Q: What sequence folds into this?
């Protein structure tokens, strides 16, 4: 098989197209479609005549109907309590609002109100229970299958009215059109007008109800808010009394006390600092040995100042006496003694001043400590008061909010009462056009209907022929196959329907009538295979498969093997369909070990190769079932089997499973020289065939030939001119000689 793999070019001796038809539509050319349509001119005439007969009969029996239109325009919504506090004016109805109003107009509740208002339940046109039963109805009543006097069903009447009613929005406007169709022109005009009036009346009723409900709701809310305002304000005052957070000049009493204590503490600390500074200065003068008499506090003392004056006067006196008297003089000594006493007295007074400074410093310190302690106590109390103040503010906010909400609701309530009375009788819609009773029916219009029926009948007739031609299920001619697939057409095999031989297999027909149409068709396929080449050599391994089961692949493979054997070629037929093996049934053999046993090593060639009892062909059956057939067929053992068989046989015919059923056909297509795809004539879907060809082409680059099987020759002659015929000169004696030669 190495030569096959290195030379992938396969040539069939056929008439396949090399390029598709540029004018083809799908797999049909325009000329072929026209020929097919013209060939069905009887169908066209019959379809046109039938269509026109139905149209004329319908026009003669149809009841004329009248369709009349009324129009309603929606206005901006106003007077709703929920919008009284809006600064902008009423908005125009949007698309969603229009669609909602259309649903209201077609609601069952409004239609039921219309039926009761106009008494439509008593009109047989709308009440099926009042209609006289037809022939079949009378029979049903006679046999008890239908009530003689059926009950009036309002739901059924509503359904009838709704089926005649059409409501839609006029494009680009706020106008709603109400159309009604009736066999009575008077009712056709009355019903849409009355429906519009009931719709507007319902709007007024609903608005009045909404206003009443909203006013009632607002009154209830106002009463509740008044209670809440009273409760919240009472809670504020109660908490203020409990916590002592009374306001004085914009602040609470504890806050004012804290401010005053801070001010007093600052003054006391300043006084203490001044006293300590004076005391420190005096002490520093004493410690340094300087005269403390120069201290400011000493100099400012009146007593010390008087003693100083006496000291000065006494010193002046002593100085004056010293000029005339000796120091030992009694008067001098007395004066000096008085000076000494005066100095001692001054010193005592100085010490008293220092003690006074010390007392002043102690008093200032004590006052500072007392004020700081009071301030600390007040600050600790202020922490609790601050928390209470937070709670108080929260209660105050609740009270303010409730008061503002109450005022807002009171304002809206007053506006609602004022405007609801003015808008109580106003609606959001008004009738802009009333329906008028028509003089002529709107349907059917006889002249237009006849013209339309004629044109529609012609189009219908041609469409029927066109659809029959185009949407055929399968392939019917070789030209279709070649145009759609680009693959060679290998011929067609007629279907067999032998009288009195129901169990005769197609492969037996080859032996029974070697010169018959079926045998000649298989022989034509043999000619294509004989002309097929792989590179520089003839194709020898032939794979026969199909897109799906039931297309005659096994019969074709068995018949082709017998034809080759009848021609003197050493031929072996391999049944590779291990899922549903049928080759042994086609050749009238019992099931024995075969290819599967050979691939897994359970048997040798001499155990699986058997001779066909009706011809010189050899057969390898499918054998014992195995689990993974695809892997077995793709193995090197399978390649070895085919290589070995090519050493002995001229041609190897392989019957594989359907290509779309398993992957076995793809594997075998890669190993084979030629692939023949059996397609059931006019049955197998074209997309199915194309999908199978795509799979086979993906497995091997070689071209696949297509063979039409089970062809109905009588029908085939209507589509193509290449149908096989039995040669007139081929007498029964010639067929007998060929049979004896076989």
A:
């Amino acid at each position: 098989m190495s030569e096959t793999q290195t030379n992938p070019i396969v040539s069939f001796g056929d008439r396949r197209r090399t390029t598709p038809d540029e004018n083809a539509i799908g797999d049909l050319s325009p000329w072929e479609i026209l020929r097919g349509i013209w060939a069905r001119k009887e169908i066209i005439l019959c379809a046109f005549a039938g269509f026109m007969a139905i149209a004329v009969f319908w026009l003669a029996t149809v009841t004329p109907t009248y369709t009349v239109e009324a129009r309603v325009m929606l206005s901006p919504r106003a007077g709703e309590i929920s919008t009284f506090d809006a600064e902008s004016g009423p908005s125009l109805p949007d698309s969603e609002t229009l669609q909602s109003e259309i649903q209201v107009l077609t609601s069952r509740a409004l239609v039921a109100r219309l039926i009761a208002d106009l008494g439509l339940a008593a009109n047989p046109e709308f009440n099926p229970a009042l209609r006289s039963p037809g022939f079949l109805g009378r029979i049903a009543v006679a046999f008890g299958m239908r009530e003689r006097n059926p009950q009036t069903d309002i739901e059924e009447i509503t359904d009838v009215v709704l089926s005649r009613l059409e409501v839609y929005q006029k494009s680009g406007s706020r106008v709603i059109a109400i159309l009604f169709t009736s066999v009575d022109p008077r009712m056709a005009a009355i019903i849409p007008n009355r429906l519009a009036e009931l719709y507007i009346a319902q709007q007024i009723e609903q608005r009045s109800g909404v206003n009443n409900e909203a006013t009632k709701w607002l009154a209830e809310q106002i009463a509740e808010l008044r209670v809440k305002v009273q409760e919240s304000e009472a809670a504020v005052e109660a908490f203020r009394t409990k916590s002592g957070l009374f306001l004085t000049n914009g602040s609470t009493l504890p806050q004012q006390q804290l401010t005053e204590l801070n001010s007093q503490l600052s003054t006391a600390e300043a006084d203490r600092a001044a006293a300590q500074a004076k005391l420190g200065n005096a002490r520093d003068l004493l410690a340094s040995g300087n005269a403390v008499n120069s201290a400011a506090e000493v100099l400012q003392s009146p007593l010390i100042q008087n003693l100083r004056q006496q000291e000065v006067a006494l010193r002046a006196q002593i100085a004056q006496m010293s000029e005339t008297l000796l120091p030992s003089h009694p008067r001098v000594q007395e004066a000096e003694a008085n000076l000494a006493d005066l100095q001692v007295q001054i010193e005592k007074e100085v010490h008293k001043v220092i003690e006074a400074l010390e007392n002043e410093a102690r008093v200032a310190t004590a006052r500072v400590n007392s004020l700081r302690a009071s301030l600390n106590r007040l600050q600790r109390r202020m922490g609790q008061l601050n928390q209470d103040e937070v709670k108080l503010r929260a209660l105050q906010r609740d009270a303010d909010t409730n008061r503002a909400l109450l005022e807002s609701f009171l304002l809206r309530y007053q506006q609602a009462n004022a405007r609801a009375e003015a808008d109580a009788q106003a609606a959001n819609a008004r009738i802009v056009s009333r329906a008028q009773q028509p003089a002529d029916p709107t349907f059917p219009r006889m002249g237009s209907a006849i013209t339309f029926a004629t044109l529609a009948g012609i189009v219908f007739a041609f469409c029927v022929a066109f659809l029959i031609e185009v949407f055929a299920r399968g392939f019917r001619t070789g030209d279709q196959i070649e145009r759609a697939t680009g693959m060679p057409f290998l011929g067609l095999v007629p279907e067999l329907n032998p009288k009195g031989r129901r169990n005769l297999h197609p492969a037996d027909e080859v032996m029974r009538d070697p010169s018959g149409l079926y045998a000649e068709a298989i022989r034509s396929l043999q000619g294509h295979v004989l002309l097929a080449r792989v590179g520089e050599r003839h194709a020898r391994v032939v794979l026969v498969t199909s897109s799906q089961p039931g297309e005659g692949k096994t019969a074709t493979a068995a018949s082709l093997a017998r034809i080759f054997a009848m021609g003197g070629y050493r031929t072996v037929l391999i049944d590779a369909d291990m899922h549903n093996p049928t080759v042994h049934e086609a050749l009238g053999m019992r099931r024995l070990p075969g290819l599967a046993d050979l691939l897994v090593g359970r048997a040798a060639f001499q155990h699986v190769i058997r001779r066909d009892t009706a011809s010189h062909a050899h057969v390898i059956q499918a054998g014992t079932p195995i689990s993974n057939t695809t892997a077995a067929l793709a193995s090197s053992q399978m390649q070895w089997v085919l290589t070995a068989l090519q050493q002995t046989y001229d041609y190897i015919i392989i019957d594989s499973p359907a290509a779309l059923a398993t992957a076995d056909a793809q594997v075998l297509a890669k190993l084979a020289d030629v692939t023949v795809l059996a397609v059931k004539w006019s049955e197998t879907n074209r997309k199915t065939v194309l999908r199978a060809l795509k799979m086979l082409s993906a497995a091997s680059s070689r071209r696949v030939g297509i063979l039409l099987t089970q062809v109905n020759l009588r029908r085939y002659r209507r589509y193509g001119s290449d149908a096989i015929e039995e040669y007139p000169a081929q007498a029964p004696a010639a067929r007998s000689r060929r049979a004896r030669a076989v």
